[in-house]
């Protein structure tokens, strides 16, 4: 494509990206560097149905004047990034200096909200992503062998978990694994332990969340791989068959290499999605056992007092995290591209 | 349930069209608020007004959306139904207007104690009082031969007897879901232990002390008698456990207790055994381990005066004294509305008020401490860390947030 043609072709997309992606990111970064002004507090008489008391409240007139003068708030540089709610530099270095052992250090690290969230987020990302790819491949291979007449129905049902709104899907599973739900009761019966509860144990809750993650995203991988299977070079398959390749060898040496670019694509999307894991934590009411960066943002904005600067800082950290996670895949794609040119 | 709400709304509309013909408004009204029966009645009353559209958005997530929905100009919501905790967030951001002139013009039906006055300005109109108090199964307590507990220590003893006699495995109920609910249970117990959340006159937290530790120990002891999933149970889930007959004693909101057993499918023994009593004390103190609440409505600042007036008129219609003629509505809450006569469901909240229960603190930084408590206490409740460590974490998390918001 000529550069000129490309420019006009790309212009509308580029503008939309600038407007809806780049500018909001700039605004979020700005927000994370500023915090609200020092509160001007006054003590005034407050009367409620119960009694009148002297209560502290914010002096709105004085605050309005300060806000007028500096609408962005106080510039605090990176201090929000370094506070206890985020990277917790002071707490981490203290934990390191006073550590009794590595285990003790990690325990202390796990007690800080950011590292606790990262712990779950990374475990979720690196366990769920490969499983989704594997499950997607297995389903695609299975569906590919189904009789043509049944294919439509089977594909429809295989896609359902992905079609269902994530929050609804999470809620349905949440109710089923409740100790009084159908799956929860079944598990108690199988384990012979009437007090077994998936929701009461951190480990079991993590497993439930990951099973949900795989259940929800496997159909996505399936659809992509299934489409890829339709383009399989039959001559190569037949040649392999003649050479005496077993079914597994054909899969290992012909089909999987053929699907490799799609695996990269699915891995890319899934790494990004899983790093931003959010809905299952809300749907499973799992905040006692697991949290993620997205959940931390939601929590900062959802409290009775909103913490915009804190949420903005976590958002920027999320963006940086996604970029780091994707870099190996992106580098690989770039090399492939250069190799072809 | 849906049919029932529909019927209530229908009855309300009929009631309003006969008794409150005067409700004519000429500008848009849009209400956001929490979701429980009493507030639904208020919303339905406001919607009975004619002449312009009255929209309601009543949801348990109201506090996540009311502030953003009122910060725009013009604001999406012309009124937010709030409580003593949630009004603070709206006042901190200056999105609600003083109502003095509207009260003078249209507020003749209001009693003086309904006006929430801050620094001499009316900022909200309260319509009901609320508190958490004891809800129990009288049949179960009779079976084990004890009186309804007056203290949490008695509650623990009763719970042990119920479990030991094989009546119920997990007889204690509690809204201990990690987050807002868990923090609220801490607040109740902490005030009952004689604690104060902040060092006097400052925004410095004051919970990592003996009262805090004793509070957590009591909560932990209670949780031993709860459904093992307690960290995921909010008030709705706790009520469901009570309705299903799995719970015999619990600390529950007055506003939810009133209609607890009127749901469909509740077993007859639960309906018959259902009983309400005042809040409990703890640790030998005489202040109940509970907090007093009011619920009321506000009017947005960033709207035209015509919309503000329409909102005020519609909301006044939502809390019209004529509603108190309806037995069903009367049972839903402890109304502050003129003409309200207490029903049996109100004894818990009245007892709470009579026992000098402390109102939930209306401090600008209380919301931050509440959030920190909700996030950091779960580790202790799971048994992963000591009470001292959990309280230290809460204070540290709160300090970081309070520094960011400019309170420290």
Order of adjacent strands in the largest pleated sheet of chain A: 1-4
Biggest chain pair contact, residues each? A-B, 56 and 69 residues
Distance between the termini of chain B: 47 Å
Q: Tell me the strand percentage band of chain B.
A: 5-15%
Mean of pLDDT of chain B: 91
Tell me how many strands of chain A there are.
4
Sheet/helix structural class of chain A? mainly alpha
Gross morphology of chain B is globular
Sketch the major β-sheet of chain A. 2 strands, antiparallel
Terminal residue distance of chain A: 14 Å
Report the β-strand fraction of chain A as a percent range: 5-15%
Write down the domain tally of chain A: 2
How many strands appear in the DSSP assignment of chain B? 11
Describe this structure in words.
The complex is a heterodimer of chains A (about 350) and B (about 400). The mean pLDDT of chain A is about 90. Chain A is built from 15 helices and four strands. In chain A, a hairpin with a 4-residue loop joins strand 2 and strand 3. With about 350 residues, chain A is mostly helical. Chain A is globular and about 90 Å long. Chain A folds into two domains: about 80-110, no CATH class; about 120-295 and about 305-340, MetI-like fold, CATH 1.10.3720.10. Chain B has about 400 residues and is of the alpha/beta class. Chain B folds into two domains: about 1-130 and about 290-350, Periplasmic binding protein-like II (D-Maltodextrin-Binding Protein, domain 2, 3-Layer(aba) Sandwich); about 130-290 and about 350-405, 3-Layer(aba) Sandwich (D-Maltodextrin-Binding Protein, domain 2), CATH 3.40.190.10. In chain B, strands 1, 2, 3, 4, 5, 6, 7, 8, 9, 10 and 11 form an eleven-stranded mixed sheet that branches. The radius of gyration of chain B is 21 Å and the shape is globular. The interface between A and B is large, with 56 and 69 residues. Strand 2 (about 40-45) of chain A pairs antiparallel with strand 4 (about 115-120) of chain B.
